[in-house]
Design brief:
heterotetramer, A: alpha/beta, 6-stranded parallel beta sheet, 8 strands, about 40% helix, B: 7-stranded mixed beta sheet, 5-stranded mixed beta sheet, 14 strands, binds thiamine diphosphate, binds magnesium ion
């Protein structure tokens, strides 16, 4: 069992231009999508809680890039990025934020409850830690059927202190389930810094208590995230059991739209923003000659158009049919 | 027709459904090697193996969550929570996940699990003798079943396992040893149908689970005094089938509602409210309730006897709604 | 007398009790550095320091358990559970420990904690909009308070903190911004006393928490039609003070019970049952209930509007118990 | 932080005859007390659940010997031994098992809920893992007050898989609370062997996840238990924070009186019984010349008389007053 901080080696396809540009496009899409969502929120088109992952795009995109289409994803309430990176239609995701019938969850769930059966994206969940046992259960289903699908379960550093995390990881550990637990460690659970909430601040060290490998990686390096998660997912697929990966990253925006951010300094935030992972990745693409500014700018334009189209679609979409209020409470009422 | 115990009836239902449907499996604490804490699952491990009869850690949150996650992917888990007292450590999974997964994501997913658990108990003191069914009956998205006889237990459990919605199936510790007729041929009892267990014209007694038996004993007592009580067994608490209750009240005009739970905010409160709402003009007297005294269950034998409802209390309540002073008797009519 | 918000009233109660009694301290998620997710505890960390305003991990079970353990040794913890939805991950501690510690050990120990939590919410979808008060009101050993006004919130919270028994104190997300008169001098409002918030002779509306406000709005509406509604605010759900309700019913003979919770097996069921039990002959019509529709709360704005009870529905229910076709009006008397 | 298996060195007073005979007397008392309790159970004088710790006496006695009278103990439902070793009157403990008013918990709690305010013995708790957060809370109270009392929290190997364990240990770890977590690892949780329930079978390794020292010791060596626990308790008293000690032991009897013991082999049980820790300790006392057979036999007689007296006392004691049914539900009803 390896528990050290370890750099991942690039996979062959990670050197291919198409793939690299895809990763860039996805990170940009998430960034732009969330910036626009924030605008629409202030306009009142989106309500309730809106949790942005701006700054965490590499962890969003790298994890999804490591999966097979039939692998399964469980995420928490900060999951616009996971949904988009998984290939869900930006129109339908934005429509969900708007509470429209055309939304991915038919407007019933909103920002915190994005899901798509077709994409094996089993939901955003808003009870911290509450989805982790569900993810273990789906991994159990794969083991039960002898399927080689693998489950990826995403949550934050704050979630590791919930009883649900503990019970689910122990179950995965004792039953050797095909699942990878991916923690976005952005150093805060709402306004509580990890050292004020966790006896052990290096999340990967928790893995040892469940007899599974734990790794800590740079969550702001999309290639490292993809390579490491893929390695752990394939390990699970090969029947070698569960694992935990800690992706070190940072949230540029507040916890939700309501956050006064009294708990961290402007300097701290600025330092991270100065190392904006999307800017860094673009520079890398240019420096390594993968693509030139013109190509990359074209992607920016393309993403811009996609997001504008998504907002227009969401805005023009109809609300759910009032007569459908009781639909989906029961399959057989 | 064979006369079997309630315990055996539950076991037969589990076994027949496991034989019928490969997707059905059991998980819970000590259901396998130990043989089941109430011996309900005895022999099933030997017959079906560790894959389909899974002993778990003492992790109720993981048990329910894992069952739900497996169900989302198409399996048919039957989770046993050793007693209803322990559902409290898993109730977030039940209320925030299991009950809402179908609705919250706009009907994309289903969560057809059965949560088998056990109410009641004797000389087990405050934390091990509770009847907490109302905590589940209050929740849209759940179905709640509480059978009183071997026939109903078997038929309703088979229906629950086949149901597309999640079902909380509440057995009763003191009923396991009771016997009753069960057909040799395959049958199911539909969820959501109350059942008249005894005909009578003078007073209606509404009950469920073990209290149905007490009600029938009380009815025999009353018969000796020339009073014919009708006993309606709810069988299902959610959805609540008031039809047979209201029909009965239309004939008897007097009702006693019996529950082993605490009276305040218990199951009987809803039943009484529905009766006065829907049969106001039929009532010749207020709907009375007989329940456990409002104390955490004491261990001491004499106090516990005083705490739990008895057939004698049911008799007295019936005489009260009939305006008959205890002791006196009436020519029925 | 000063007019302050419900939020400020709660904060004043906390601050005054912390100043009065060294044993009083606060613990909960993000009550300190973050300033409180509803800004209720804002400024208290700065005034009282980290010893008495303790940010916790996301561990509701540990929060409640720790508060209870400290209370057993004589401290006066006030635990904040960010919203009532999250009490579900800690409800075993509340029901099996907090509610029973005094009884189960023969009165040797006391558990005087206050669990402050928040019901209601808008556009937060299924897991974040619940009104689960009945889950606590059902439990002997607990006291449950749900104030509707700044005056009651402050006075009842002070009484709760001074009480020797555990109190679940349920605030309401949509009430925090509402304003009301609060005396400048010290006062407490006793637990277990219902309060008539408006006098009227024609119909009784029983409510609590935010629904008391809706009931008062409905009463003004009805007044325009010449109907004088009396509004009884329960304020405390356990112990339930039926006196003022029964007095009112004796005068009006017609009752509507309003709750923001789900109707089936909700708070109103007990209130309606008690009324028909104890004032059967006073009733000229069945007790009607107005509640949330029985669906997990949808995110979509139009569906959510349909799901929650409104003053208009209360008006209609009052007209119905008065046998008045909507639209028509009566000369009161 | 040390996580290795480590032998404890004898403390000076552990070489003194009085102390050694005290330990012997206590282990015998527990053994004899429980053997007699089992007899009374079969006679029906004791009911409900009765969990015997026969075979685990050294862990029971060693832990209690390490504490100061004003230190605090929280235990689980298998706690006759802890109660007796803590100095609680065998008469009052037996009377509690009999459900009598003279019982330590006035007959309200029974075998699973032994407690004594005077002995800072805060209870036997029957929800697995449920008392661990309470213990952390009392340690918090000590830290709050600047008291040098230390809390000892006892539970089994099965309890470490509960969410409550995880949340409480993390809280103790991050707040550096004065508490020692003592795990009686008897290799089974009911009928489930530790390797079938725990991803990590060496319980002490879990400590690392909470940044506290973990030690594994021979729980059947009363001197090793006392020395190690005392070291950890004094460490906590000195402000050096929490720790976890795994006491390896074995349960000779079934989990409870109802256990058919299908899950373990007769051979396994016999092997442990052959190394009966009380027999081993007696031989050691004789071999080291601490006491001769006559002295030790005198203690056997004395213990025998004490237990017989306790049974007689319990049997002759009155049941609680029926009129007191509602006492202790609330301090202020
Ligand atoms: C059981 C529970 N407790 C509290 C909350 C409120 N809450 C929502 S998000 C959050 C912080 C979670 O932090 P983390 O897991 O680090 O994820 P992040 O928001 O940083 O992505 C909290 C406390 C909740 N939703 N569920
Ligand atoms: C939350 C909960 N789940 C299940 C049970 C039933 N139960 C009682 S004791 C026990 C086994 C506990 O094993 P362990 O912690 O190793 O202690 P031991 O009995 O071996 O001393 C179980 C499963 C319970 N009391 N509480
Ligand atoms: Mg975080
Ligand atoms: Mg054990």
């Amino acid at each position: 069992m390896t528990n050290e901080r370890q750099e991942a080696v690039l996979l062959p396809h990670q050197k291919e231009k198409d793939h690299l540009l895809h990763l860039y496009r996805m990170m940009l899409l998430i960034r732009r999508f969330e910036e626009r969502a924030a605008e629409e929120y202030t306009k009142g088109k989106i309500a309730g809680f809106l949790h942005l992952a701006i700054g965490e795009e590499p962890a969003n995109v790298g994890t999804m890039a490591a999966l097979r289409p039939d692998d399964d994803v469980f995420s928490h309430y900060r999951s616009h990025g996971h949904a988009l990176a998984r290939g869900m239609d930006p129109r339908a995701v934005m429509a969900e934020l708007f509470g429209k019938e055309t939304g991915v969850s038919r407007g019933r769930g909103g920002s915190m409850h994005l899901a798509s059966l077709e994409h094996h994206f089993w939901g955003g969940y808003a009870i911290v830690g509450g989805h982790i046992p569900l993810a273990a259960g789906m991994a159990l289903a794969h083991e039960y059927r002898g399927s080689d699908r693998v489950v990826l379960c995403i949550f934050g550093d704050g979630a590791v202190n919930t009883g649900a995390f503990h019970e689910a990881l122990n179950l995965a550990g004792v039953w050797r389930l095909p699942i990878v637990f991916a923690v976005s460690n952005n150093f805060y659970g709402m306004g509580t810094a990890i050292e004020r909430s966790s006896a052990v601040t290096e999340v990967y060290k928790r893995a040892a208590a469940y007899n599974m490998p734990g790794k800590r990686i740079n969550g702001n390096d999309v290639l490292e995230v993809e390579a490491t998660v893929r390695e752990l997912v394939e390990r699970a697929r090969a029947g070698e059991g569960p694992s935990l990966v800690e992706m070190v990253t940072y949230r540029f925006r507040g916890h939700s739209m309501a956050d006064p951010e009294l708990y961290r300094s402007k300097e701290e935030v600025e330092q991270w923003k100065a190392r904006d992972p999307i800017v860094v990745f673009r520079r890398r693409l240019e420096e390594e000659g993968t693509a030139d500014a013109a190509e990359l700018d074209a992607i920016v334009q393309e993403v811009e158009a996609t997001v504008e189209d998504a907002v227009r679609f969401a805005d023009e979409s109809p609300e759910p049919d009032p007569d459908a209020l009781f639909d989906y409470v029961y399959v057989n009422p | 027709m064979a006369e079997i115990t309630y315990r055996e009836a539950v076991r037969q239902a589990l076994r027949e459904e496991m034989l019928r449907d490969e997707r059905v499996f059991l998980l819970g604490e000590d259901i396998g090697r130990y043989g089941g804490s109430y011996a309900v699952t005895k022999g099933l491990l030997e017959e079906f193996g560790e894959k389909r009869v899974r002993d778990t850690p003492i992790s109720e949150t993981a048990i329910i969550g894992a069952a739900a996650g497996a169900a989302m992917d198409g399996l048919r888990p039957v989770a046993e929570i050793m007693t209803i007292n322990f559902t409290l450590v898993a109730i977030d999974q039940i209320i925030n996940n299991v009950a809402k997964i179908h609705y919250m994501f706009g009907g994309q997913f289903r969560c057809p699990i059965v949560i088998r658990t056990v109410g009641g108990g004797r000389r087990l003191a405050a934390t091990h003798s509770q009847n907490l069914e109302v905590l589940f009956a209050h929740i849209p998205g759940l179905k709640v079943v509480a059978p009183a006889t071997p026939y109903d237990a078997k038929g309703l459990l088979k229906a629950s396992i086949r149901d597309e919605d999640p079902v909380v199936f509440i057995e009763h510790a003191l009923l396991y040893g009771t016997r009753g007729e069960v057909p040799d041929e395959e049958y199911v009892v539909p969820i959501g149908v109350s059942d008249i267990k005894r005909r009578g014209r003078d007073v209606t007694i509404v009950a469920y689970s073990r209290m149905t038996r007490e009600a029938l004993i009380a009815a025999e007592e009353l018969a000796k005094q020339g009073i014919e009580a009708e006993v309606v067994d709810l069988r299902t608490l959610r959805p609540l089938d008031m039809g047979p209750v209201l029909d009965s009240v239309a004939r008897t005009n007097r009702v006693v509602v019996v529950g082993e739970d605490w009276r305040s905010f218990g199951i009987g409160a809803e039943v009484a409210s529905r009766i006065q709402e829907e049969a106001f003009d039929d009532l010749d007297a207020p709907v009375l309730r007989v329940n456990q005294q409002e104390v955490p269950t004491p261990y001491a034998a004499n106090l516990e006897r005083l705490a739990f409802p008895s057939s004698q209390q049911i008799v007295e309540a019936c005489l009260e709604v009939l305006n008959i002073r205890v002791g006196a008797s009436v020519a029925a009519g």
